[in-house]
Amino acid sequence: MKTMKLICPLALAFALAATGCKHQPVGVTPLTPGPTPPPIETQPTTLPGSTMNPDTGPTSTSGGGGIPAASPDLFQGMIEDTNALASYTVHFKYDSAAVQKTEKSNLQAVAAALTADASTKLLIEGNCDERGTEEYNRSLGERRALALREALAKIGVDPSRVRTISYGKDKPADTGHDEEAWAKNRRGDFVLLHPNPNAPAGTPPS
């Protein structure tokens, strides 16, 4: 009888010890996996000068390709001759400011005209077709005019005799809305500048 009284408390203590290690810690919330968030969609980034946005009053441009900008004072009051070099207009490929090798003869003709009369100067007008934003086309027209100025400098034209301006898409040569018209409008025009014969003696050119 005494043996049974000793065994029961021992068995009860053993059972409590065995089940006591299985209780949950107080204050801890079990984690359950939540729903997977959807992927975030991003839009492609267009960098300045990329072909995502083609061919942007006019914007006067400064130096390009490491060539110092010509002083505006050297061109003030000069007379524009838009017809003298009209046949030597240079055209560009879509969304490009690279001067093509096929335009070499036009550049040489413009250089020869400036060499023949040292009193003349040159205005280069950069133009674009109608596609793209106004701002982008202003920038592209500027790059085209500067590229032509640099190309002329490489064949001996003094950059100080050349000014550049960008009209973007505001001065189309052809008002059509097809590739034929756009090809005509992607261009650089050359305007010959003559001294004003009516300017008072001693007046600095501009």
Entry summary:
This protein is of the alpha+beta class and 206 residues long.
Task: Show the helix and strand layout.
Layout: H1 2-20, E1 59-60, E2 79-81, E3 90-91, H2 104-116, E4 121-127, H3 134-154, E5 162-168, H4 179-185, E6 187-194
Parallel strand pairs: 4-5
Antiparallel strand pairs: 1-5, 2-6, 3-6, 4-6
Description:
The chain is an alpha+beta fold and 206 residues long. The chain has a domain at 70-194: 60s Ribosomal Protein L30, Chain: A (2-Layer Sandwich), CATH 3.30.1330. The protein is built from 4 helices and 6 strands; from the N terminus they run αβββαβαβαβ. Strands 1, 2, 3, 4, 5 and 6 form a 6-stranded mixed sheet that branches. It is globular, with a radius of gyration of 38 Å. The model is unreliable at 15-26 and 31-56 (pLDDT under 50).
Q: State which percent range the strand residues make up.
A: 5-15%
Number of helical segments? 4
User: Overall pLDDT, averaged?
Assistant: 77
> H/E element string?
HEEEHEHEHE
Percent helix range: 25-40%
What structural class is derived from the secondary structure elements? alpha+beta
Q: What is the CATH topology assignment of the domain at 70-194?
A: 60s Ribosomal Protein L30, Chain: A
Q: What top-tier CATH class of the domain at 70-194 fits best? A: Alpha Beta
For the termini, the CA-CA separation is 129 Å
Tell me the radius of gyration.
Answer: 38 Å
CATH architecture identity of the domain at 70-194: 2-Layer Sandwich
Unreliable parts? 15-26, 31-56
Instruction: Write down how many β-strands occur, each being a DSSP E stretch of 2 or more residues.
Output: 6
